[in-house]
Q: What sequence folds into this?
């Protein structure tokens, strides 16, 4: 194999057609190799796509293997027989990094034929598959659109601690951390801090960051570490404003992702929905619908996974994705900071957003009065002094406020129709998985 001058600029595979007749260099991974009558056709894959390279004579004997990293120099040429109408007639090939072990599964097929555990055990390799690659390009676009939409509406991006002294939910689903002489935990949510930042005068804040839940679930819908898209805003009149915000936010996110990732959605065979007016159903009414239409009984004041799926089925239009806000949850199943409903103190001004049968968002208005919040904390059998750092801001003036959090992996998995939320996490952390 020969090495050619580094003065020839690297061209991405997707842009080779812009350089027809020119000497170029492409670099990437060997995606496929086909031999034919003294020729070798080598597909090279980079972050942008795949291009066919034609090797003749001695070059065709190059000892290349699938997934090796290579540099190919040559001339870009149009070809009606090439898979994408363009190919590179190679004049030199250099293997930068060869593959030394047999691959645990093939990634140049339409889909990966392996169990999910095997795929995740070899995650770096599976991430190279074009469909998996597309998943995370789309996820990146969703997160970027979330940031841009809120920034354009005068929300400030914040960065809050992930090592905390107590949980935000007042429960036990916390990961303890050795923190010198003190007890500490991984943060379940940035909830307290985003409220504190609203009260610190920023009024509108958002964060994109991991959160940690020490739940022993081992299901297709749970992760113990996931990315939370959090938003919080002050001077609201009710939780209705928050649902309005999320409805418009999601429409923007999906439209932006569709525009930026047109090829990725096409590869995955996904038509991007654009949420319109999302129905809002009180949880008590949802339970009545489930009982009447499906004979389904639900947990007190809540919906179980089957109930979420069925209420989405009920609310959806034919051949359209289902979005449903479920509202007015009872106080006993909502966090201590949830604002009681204005017309019924036993209920809360809160909501969940369900998307294609799965909860992707929890949100609502928060208590902003110091005494009311302190009493709510005590009513859960907790000591307000343990939350002094959080409560202080309420003593110094807090506007009516609220917010929501979207699970990025759940959002991605529902949008793309992935059967397991782990497939929407680059390196998932679940009940048993700490590597890779």
A:
């Amino acid at each position: 194999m020969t090495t050619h001058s580094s003065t020839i600029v690297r061209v991405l595979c997707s842009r080779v057609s812009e350089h027809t007749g020119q000497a170029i260099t492409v670099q990437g991974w060997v995606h496929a190799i086909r031999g034919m009558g003294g020729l070798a056709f080598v597909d090279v894959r980079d972050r942008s796509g795949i291009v066919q390279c034609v090797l003749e004579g001695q070059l065709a004997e190059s000892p290349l293997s699938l997934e090796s990293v290579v540099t190919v120099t040559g001339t870009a040429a149009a070809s009606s027989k090439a898979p994408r109408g363009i190919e590179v007639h190679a004049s030199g090939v250099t293997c930068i990094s060869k593959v030394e072990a047999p691959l645990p599964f093939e990634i140049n097929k339409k889909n990966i034929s392996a169990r999910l555990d095997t795929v995740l055990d070899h995650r770096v390799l599976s991430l190279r598959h074009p469909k998996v690659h597309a998943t995370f390009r789309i996820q990146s676009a969703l997160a970027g659109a979330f940031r841009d939409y809120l920034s354009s509406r005068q929300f400030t991006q914040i960065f809050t601690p992930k090592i905390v002294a107590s949980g935000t939910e007042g429960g036990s689903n916390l990961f303890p951390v050795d923190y010198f002489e003190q007890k500490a935990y991984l943060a379940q949510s940035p909830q307290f801090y985003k409220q504190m930042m609203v009260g610190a005068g920023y009024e509108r804040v958002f964060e994109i960051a991991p959160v940690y839940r020490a739940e022993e679930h081992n299901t297709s819908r749970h992760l113990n570490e996931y990315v939370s898209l959090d938003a919080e805003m002050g001077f609201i009149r009710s939780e209705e404003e928050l649902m309005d915000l999320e409805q418009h936010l999601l429409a923007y996110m999906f439209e932006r992702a569709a525009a930026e990732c047109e090829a990725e959605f096409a590869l995955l065979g996904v038509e991007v929905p654009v949420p319109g007016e999302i129905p809002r159903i009180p949880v008590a009414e949802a339970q009545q619908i489930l009982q009447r239409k499906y004979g389904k009984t639900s947990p007190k004041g809540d919906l179980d996974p089957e109930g979420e799926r069925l209420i989405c089925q009920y609310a959806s239009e034919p051949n359209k994705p289902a979005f449903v806000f479920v509202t007015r949850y009872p106080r006993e199943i909502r966090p201590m900071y949830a604002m009681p409903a204005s017309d019924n103190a036993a209920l809360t001004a809160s909501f969940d957003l369900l998307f294609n049968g799965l909860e992707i968002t929890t949100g609502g208005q928060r208590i902003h009065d110091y005494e009311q919040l302190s009493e709510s904390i005590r009513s859960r059998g907790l000591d307000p002094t343990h939350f002094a750092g959080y409560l202080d801001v309420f003593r110094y003036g807090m506007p009516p406020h609220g917010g929501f959090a979207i699970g990025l992996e759940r959002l991605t998995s529902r949008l793309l129709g992935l059967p397991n939320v782990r497939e929407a996490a680059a390196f998932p952390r679940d009940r048993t998985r700490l590597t890779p």
Remarks:
- Residues 352 and 362 are 4 Å apart (CA to CA).
- DSSP finds eleven helices and 18 strands in the chain.
- The first strand starts at residue 23 and ends at 36.
